[in-house]
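Feature request, filed as a ticket because there's no other form

It would be nice if the structure record came with a short human-readable summary line next to the tokens. Right now we just get the raw output. Example of a typical job, pasted below so the devs can see what we mean:
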Amino acid sequence: MPWPDVVIDALGHDPRSPYVESYWLAVLGPSTTWLLRRLASRLEVEPDGFSLDLAETARSLGLGMRGGRSSPFVRALGRCVVFELARPHSYDSLAVRRRLPPLSRRQVLHLPESLQHSHRRWQDAQLGPAAEARQRDRSRQLALSLRQLGEDHDAVERQLKRWRFGPALAKESTAWAWERRPLLSGEPASPGEAPRTATPAR
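Raw output as currently delivered:
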């Protein structure tokens, strides 16, 4: 099953992306990384979830199933859960993230020194005018997603601030989300916005 997360789905990295191959690979190992890539591809085709043949998937990844819980494939599944990239959904299903968050500072410090420098350069590249535009786009997309989930105007703005978007950007993105998506029937207007009434059909 997919593991929806409004923040990571908007800000995270596709398991098949260069970021994951460059940095998460050193944290997860190749078996877990390839498993996440395979699951992401399947969820792209079957977004509501799918049945996974464990033995067939293990063989297709070059992993064994012998050894029960200590088998290479089961260990790869376990690492997905340990790193909070998957979680039990029910007794026989697993919810899996479709995108991976950026590495934490602690995880970066465990990378080889060359990758630490590379990751620092990647972070530096996120700054500047282009990065500001990406930050604005992310903030707007999150605001729109929260609005679609039914959050009111003030709640959306507060949540953006909790996610460490600046007050001015949080306010602008919230206003943009309300302009982008017309007011729903019965939904309260944003502060200072006059209620809208439907024009009778003629």
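Something like this underneath would help us a lot:
The chain has two domains: 6-102, 126-180.
Residues 113 and 119 are 10 Å apart (CA to CA).
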